[in-house]
Amino acid sequence: MSLLHPNPLRLGVNIDHVATIRNARGGDHPDPVRAAEIVAQCGGDGITAHLREDRRHIRDEDLARIQAATNLPLNLEMAATPEMLQIALRHKPHAACIVPEKREERTTEGGLDAAGLHNTLVPIIDELKTAGIRVSLFIEASERQLDAALRLGAPVVEFHTGEYAHAILDGDSDRTEKELRRIADMAALAAKNGIEPHAGHGLTYDNVQPIAAIPQIAELNIGHYLVGEAVFVGLEPAVLKMRELMDEAR
Q1: Number of other residues whose CB lies within 10 A of the CB of residue 48
Q2: Known catalytic residues?
């Protein structure tokens, strides 16, 4: 008889790049909603989608369709802008993760400067929380940014794991260990202060387990890698393998 781990780790699947492929040719195929349905069927814990200013992947009309298609919680990644705030308030996703956004970047390049943007973030976070939307801040694993999240009253932070992933790709074991320790220390500090820590960015089959093994982290959000693997093996097997690796790490 197996026992559930007392601190299970959730997997949120980012389906943005299914929409990226769709948008490359126009039309409706492949449909990110179908991806959301597959994630729900194979045991994913949530759907993440980033509605960017330039609509390069997820489009406005996708949000309601995703919400209607599955019962999984939707985590809307959004920039801290009046337009995105109004969209979030209209759709009322389970969670809104506030991320930095630059039009020219290919992907999110780092964490949100929650400390420097404190005054900008206060009214946005207040409105989201009033609407019953769980607020998350996508930040670097640093005491400065975590302290800012605490002062802003964010119940969740998602730590940017990009530098950790890059260190592994560079074969730099010392930097890898330093980045992993930094994330682990900040996850413990977040949990100690009543903030739920999540993590994501650049996570793959090869690097996910050390992050998944950090006991305080409650959720990983993974997208680009899973969609890339799905090209070769299908989305369901890709998600199931990631789920298996995460569970092994716990």
Answers
A1: 26
A2: 50, 77, 201
